[in-house]
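Field reference: "sequence" (input) and "structure" (output). Example, Transporter:
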Amino acid sequence: MALNTETEGRGQWGSSLGFIMAAAGSAVGLGNIWRFPYITGENGGGAFVFVYILCVLLIGIPLLFNELAIGRLTGKNPIGAMKKASDNKFWMIPGIMSVVICFMVLTYYSVIAGWTVGYIITELINIPVDFDVFIETPKYIVPLTFLFMVITILVILGGVSGGIEKASKLLMPVLFILIILIAGRSVTLPGASEGINYYLNPDFSKINGGVILAALGQAFFSMSVGWGLMVTYGSYLPKSSNLVTSGLWIGALDSFVALLGGLMIFPAVFALGLKPDEGPSLVFKILPQVFDQIPGGSIIGASFFLLLMVAALTSTISMLEVPVGYLIDEKKISRKKAAWGVGITAMVVSIPAILSSIEESVFSKVTMKIGSIQKTGWFDIMDWTFGTLSVTVLCLLFALFSGWGFKSSKLVDEIALGAPTFKKKILFGISPGQVWIFFIRFVCPLVIGLVLLNLFGVFGEPEAGG
């Protein structure tokens, strides 16, 4: 099937830096600053960090190259890309899944983002907040969630270079400055050294199958692979762009933020004698207590939740762009109508996620059971179904498509357009492209399959998702 990359009316990245900032922003989200530290805490600190970095290099980066190459080769959104790349209708499944996953995750992810906006305000004016009471108060959460969604829509309205790229060039440096400043303050607290040691000093005896699987799951959840986001972002790239360099930068920036996230949290938690493995409540319940006990805590606290909000925004921008890109490409709807249409629909669909935090609400009691997996509450059901299980399945489908359902050499040629060394035989007569094909065909499907089995508790306790 002939492939081309017509991009008229779709927009294109204005620069490589702008694309890297936008794609890294998509990858850098609450998963880096919220999920990474508590998963690290639950899996033994430094040993987990070591395994995670290996997983990013060996699994996350090859999968990232894969999605970027599919996007740029076809010049389309995930549905259009799969339609264009293959006549086999089976491969439409991952394309459709991409658009559905991005929309559904957006509907509850924006609720968490709304919480961060509320906490910026309460930290600034130094009002103690009971997290459980706060999230059970729709009169606060609904407007905060909707406000956040409107901000996301306004960025998308600006288009690829005028909206997403400009916003990312502003937001990402702000995020880096905030995270460095807060981490710097955290590591200088009296008693912080114990937390630094726990976080960065690997105890390799703690590495077991569970730790490896947790690190694998975190690596591709936080790298934004398995969503179709990078297919969409890749479709806006010119042929001259270097996918290898860009992919490595995205992986490095994503891991950098995740690692600094731990340096923000663990030294402060240990300095104040708190537990490092408190789970997701660490961010909204325990950290405000930490900030209260630090000189200038209200400013630091507000800065931290501003950081969370920025990280969430760079991710919701990409989540909204996927269904918007689909409507522009396939349905020929204007960007303005597509952005407002999808955005307002997402606001409406976010309401069950908001209400699921209220104990007496029907949405807090709804239950889903699959084998040994049981999830209660709309929020947790959506997160496990779309934010965890579906993402893992989609990662597997994209790898199988590129490795077995499509001519892999075409993707190698695509990656090599801006990076000729990708096809050069560098070591033992083997090129990086050949190594990449081996990983996409064999290593990635095997590893993703293991992570998928782990989600269902085949190797012990089911992975919770997150």
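The chain has a mean pLDDT of 90.
The domain at 18-455 is CATH 1.10.4160 (Hydantoin permease).
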